[in-house]
Amino acid sequence: MRFKAFPRALATGLFASLSAAFLLAGQAAAVEGKLVLYTSQPNTDAQQTIDAFKAKHPKVEISFVRDGTPRVMAKLRAEFEAGAPQPDLLLIADAVTMEGLKKEDRLLAHDKADISAYPAGVHDKAKFWFATKLITTGIVYNTKAPLKPSSWLDLTKPEAKNLVAMPSPLNSGAAMIHTITLNSNLPTGWGFYEALQKNGALAAGANGDILRQVATGEKLYGMIVDFMPIREKAKGAPVEFVFPSEGVSAVSEPVAILKTSKNPEAAKAFVDFLLSKEGQELALKQGYVAAHPDVALPAGYPARSAIKLMPFDAAKALADEPAARKRFSAIFE
């Protein structure tokens, strides 16, 4: 039995496709050397992320420094001052910090990063930083609370008087993003925070402390990042989490490459992995809402279509932060 010869055009196209495949394979194999990651991820998440990347790029040796974003940035600032920044990559809590670094010309653009699967506005348009997750802030309430909130404005009602706790944006980058987002999107703007203050809301403590206060009944309502109360509810804590009807703010735990990276090609491969479907499914396994729109949500979350994200402009937020800090201080202190 004889096989028919391929048409010349088909053969040429097949050869080109195979050549491209071998080229990509060669590029992947060529990624090697050392990488240093500075991150605010929990230690377990950071190690899982590194292990998954190394499974694809075993010749890359990665070390990481983990701390909260403010401390990570303080360490990095000191290294900038000394003229010896150590990290190749940053994977931290918020895009506003990344915008600041971008404005200072500290970041390296990854022009070839494939973000075609993502909706517009998720990543930096110029490809200096990329969202890896969507960690939203909504309302947690104790299951014994008489008022079952569905709107941000419910926290200003008489039933919630002296019973609301929230992180202060003066001490938390995520809380600052949340404050600026709400002020930009709620019709009442700063009037919402003025009403909260008049209603006895307490602006202090981190997310873990907010959860503790609401779970114990010390307070009945709180503003908090989504995954903490959802995870604790699954463990039996007497709490419920609400995505308010007006929408929620989100921090995106962005990743970026430092302009001073000693191994930019390996750093780009790390970013590519985080943006890939496989990398985004790892975020799901860790219990987070992946930024990729085709990845399912963790157990305990509603459908992705039921979560309304409020618009957020990181560059504008960076410019607005000093004024927002001053205004919040005037209201609550």
TrEMBL record:
Entry keyword set: Periplasm, Signal
Signal peptide span: 1-30
InterPro entries, per database record: Ferric-bd, SBP
Source organism, top-level taxon: Bacteria
CDD domains linked to this entry: PBP2_Fbp_like_2 (cd13547)
A Pfam family of this chain: SBP_bac_1
SUPFAM superfamilies registered for this protein in UniProt: Periplasmic binding protein-like II (SSF53850)
Protein name: ABC transporter substrate-binding protein
Protein source organism: Bosea massiliensis
Lineage, highest ranks first: Bacteria, Pseudomonadati, Pseudomonadota, Alphaproteobacteria, Hyphomicrobiales
